[in-house]
Amino acid sequence: MKNTILHKANTRGHADHGWLNAHHTFSFASYYDPNRVQFGVLRVLNDDIVASGMGFGTHPHDNMEIITIPLEGDLAHKDSMGNTEVIKFGDVQVMSAGTGIQHSEFNPNHDKRTNLLQIWVFPKYRNVEPRYQQITLDTTDRHNQLQQILSPNADDAGVWIHQDAWFHMGNLDKGVTLDYNRKKEGNGLYVFVIKGSVKVDGQELEQRDGLGITDFDTVTFEATTEAEILLMEVPMIQ
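The chain above was modelled as a monomer; its predicted structure follows.
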């Protein structure tokens, strides 16, 4: 029997710092809700808008898998491993913080904002050697189908992380229906609607809504408008 938990977009934590307008699906920084700390090993789902020329100064992380997905604009990245990159729409970046890293991120453009999703997943193993990976995907491969963007396997499509997790993205035309089949027994699925509206097993979700699903084998999606979705299958036990 499937179990679900619905997080409406307007119930997310919100912080407007001027240079940063952030929405938090799960507890983060000054936003704390004891009922919304994490979904399994999915710890952070932040929807950040960074003003032109602004960004996050150098700060540390450890023992976390950090995934960045730009939705609009660019993000310049620099870290203590020596990586200096610009992440653009269509790219996916992952850092395994492991034993510890420091990095900074900023919007390198002076005429447009940057909108990104930053996602934190607890790793399967602690104190791994830090690593960085960035790839550019063909976004046409997610038109009316699910494109895998992350997995536990280095030789699979997308980036890989130290966790039994699979992420997919899909751009669906109105009326399109598709199924998602769970990859690993015991995992849950967190659905995040980036744009549009989608029925998930009949549950209507709108833009920036999230839905956590556990105890399932298959989930059915029907786009009720043109829609963009992110699916995150993650272990429910840390």
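Residues 41 and 238 are 6 Å apart (CA to CA).
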